[in-house]
Structure formats: C-alpha cells, structure tokens
C-alpha cells in the first residue's frame, strides 16, 4: 500500500528488501524526468531515448537489488545513468539484436511496462554477453531463419557443428537472461547465483551442492533471489539433453 508521500529513500530501501512494487512507484515517479533528460542526450532519437531510459532504470533496479544505489537523490542518480546509457546506446545499436526477436524468451507480461523493460534489458544483456560466434549463430537462426547448413557455411563450420552451436547459444542466452535478473553485490552471493542458474538450467552442480545449501541457509537475500529465478525460469523452455 503506497502513497505519494512515501519518500524516495524509503522506496529505495523497500526495493533493496526485494519489493518490486516499490520500484514500480519509483519508476512512475521519475520516468518522465528521465525521458526528458534522455531526449536531450540522444539528439531527438525517440528510440535511443527510450533505450537510455530503460537502461538507466534497469541500472537503478539492479543497484538497489544488489544493496547499492542512491540513498536519497534518485533524480540526480537517474540523470547521470541516463547520460551514460545514451552514450553507450549509439555505439551498441549496430550490433544489437532486436529483443522481440530473441528465440524462446517469454513474452513480457501485458500491461506491465516495468517488467517489460526489465525483461527486455535482461535479454539484451544476455545477448551481448554471448561470444561473437554465438551472437552470429543466434542472429542467423532467429532473425534470418537460416538452417544449420547456411549457418555453418557462413561461419566456416560443418552443419552438425552449426546445429550444436545454435543449441548451445540459445541455452547460454537463457542462462544469461536468468542470471541478469539478479545482481548481488557480494562476490560469494554472485557465485551462488551462478550455480543456482546452472542448476535451474539442468547443468550438474553436484560438487557445489553443500556450499550452495549452506549459503542459502544463512543468506535470506539469496533465498529470495533463488525464488525469483525459479519463477523466471518456469517461463523458459526447459533444457532437454545436449545434442
Ligand atoms: Zn547470498
């Protein structure tokens, strides 16, 4: 139950504690300002401005979820983030795959722009985190509808290798997409989240099971992150054995 009089600082604390509704309120409160700032930084390109706003908002959410981010001045924090994001956007545009075309990622929930932006940004980060060869394979497969033969020809590898590359690239994309939903600041928490993602995606983490369980037992934040990851993973295609 939120009212307009709740201070930004208090909302930030609530987001740090895992409350996504508090983030939605922060978003609604500051998005118009962020957009105005972005339009000023992107020389009138509406698409670039929207990208810069969503990047800045994602950065804010990730920082808060990681226990960092602004303590007070949220508008000031966002203005700096928007300017940085706008500078990155132009450089990135030419190598970006339109998020809507990424294969097998869940459709964003209707009517929730925060979720939609967040999901899109996670997908984009996951795509950019792939090796160049995997990015090319996913792009050819998903955007251009190429088969293994043509992908192999383009990359100079045999069709079975191309087929396996596409499979592994798509799986890496899903794991990366999941992983970008949580961003703990602590290195041990980050390691544990990597293993939780691996385990959710069906990779063996048996030798780390004891360490992961013991961490989850004492870290409430990671237990909550684990729950979020399981929810997101439930919307993804499940892994079915390596070809
Ligand atoms: Zn932890």
UniProtKB/TrEMBL annotation:
<dbReference type="Pfam" id="PF04542">
    <property type="entry name" value="Sigma70_r2"/>
</dbReference>
<dbReference type="Pfam" id="PF08281">
    <property type="entry name" value="Sigma70_r4_2"/>
</dbReference>
<dbReference type="InterPro" id="IPR013324">
    <property type="entry name" value="RNA_pol_sigma_r3/r4-like"/>
</dbReference>
<dbReference type="GO" id="GO:0003677">
    <property type="term" value="F:DNA binding"/>
</dbReference>
<dbReference type="GO" id="GO:0016987">
    <property type="term" value="F:sigma factor activity"/>
</dbReference>
<keyword id="KW-0804">Transcription</keyword>
<dbReference type="InterPro" id="IPR039425">
    <property type="entry name" value="RNA_pol_sigma-70-like"/>
</dbReference>
<dbReference type="InterPro" id="IPR007627">
    <property type="entry name" value="RNA_pol_sigma70_r2"/>
</dbReference>
<dbReference type="InterPro" id="IPR014284">
    <property type="entry name" value="RNA_pol_sigma-70_dom"/>
</dbReference>
<dbReference type="GO" id="GO:0006352">
    <property type="term" value="P:DNA-templated transcription initiation"/>
</dbReference>
<dbReference type="InterPro" id="IPR013249">
    <property type="entry name" value="RNA_pol_sigma70_r4_t2"/>
</dbReference>
<feature type="domain" description="RNA polymerase sigma factor 70 region 4 type 2">
    <location>
        <begin position="122"/>
        <end position="173"/>
    </location>
</feature>
<keyword id="KW-0805">Transcription regulation</keyword>
<comment type="similarity">
    <text>Belongs to the sigma-70 factor family. ECF subfamily.</text>
</comment>
<dbReference type="InterPro" id="IPR036388">
    <property type="entry name" value="WH-like_DNA-bd_sf"/>
</dbReference>
<feature type="domain" description="RNA polymerase sigma-70 region 2">
    <location>
        <begin position="29"/>
        <end position="95"/>
    </location>
</feature>
<dbReference type="InterPro" id="IPR013325">
    <property type="entry name" value="RNA_pol_sigma_r2"/>
</dbReference>
<keyword id="KW-0238">DNA-binding</keyword>
<protein>
    <submittedName>
        <fullName>Sigma-70 region 2 domain protein</fullName>
    </submittedName>
</protein>
<keyword id="KW-0731">Sigma factor</keyword>
């Amino acid at each position: 139950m939120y009212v307009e009089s709740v201070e930004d600082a208090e909302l930030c604390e609530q987001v740090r504690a895992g409350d996504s509704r508090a983030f939605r309120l922060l978003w609604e409160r500051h998005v118009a300002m962020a957009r105005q700032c972005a339009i000023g930084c992107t020389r009138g390109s509406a698409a670039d401005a929207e990208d810069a706003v969503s990047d800045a908002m994602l950065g804010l959410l990730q920082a808060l979820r990681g226990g960092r981010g602004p303590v007070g001045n949220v508008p000031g924090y966002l203005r700096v983030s928007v300017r940085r994001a706008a500078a990155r956007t132009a450089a990135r545009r030419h190598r970006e795959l339109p998020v809507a075309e990424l294969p097998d990622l869940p459709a964003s929930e209707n009517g929730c722009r925060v979720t939609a932006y967040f999901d899109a940004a996670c997908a984009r980060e996951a795509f950019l985190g792939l090796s160049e060869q995997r990015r090319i394979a996913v792009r050819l497969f998903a955007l251009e509808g190429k088969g293994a033969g043509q992908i192999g020809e383009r990359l100079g590898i045999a069709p079975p290798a191309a087929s396996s590359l596409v499979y592994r690239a798509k799986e890496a994309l899903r794991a990366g997409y999941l992983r970008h939903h949580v961003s703990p600041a602590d290195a041990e928490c980050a390691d544990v989240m990597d293993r939780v993602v691996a385990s959710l995606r069906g990779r063996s983490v048996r030798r780390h099971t004891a360490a992961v369980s013991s961490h989850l037992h004492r870290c409430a934040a990671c237990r909550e992150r684990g729950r979020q990851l399981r929810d997101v993973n439930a919307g993804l295609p499940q892994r079915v054995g390596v070809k």
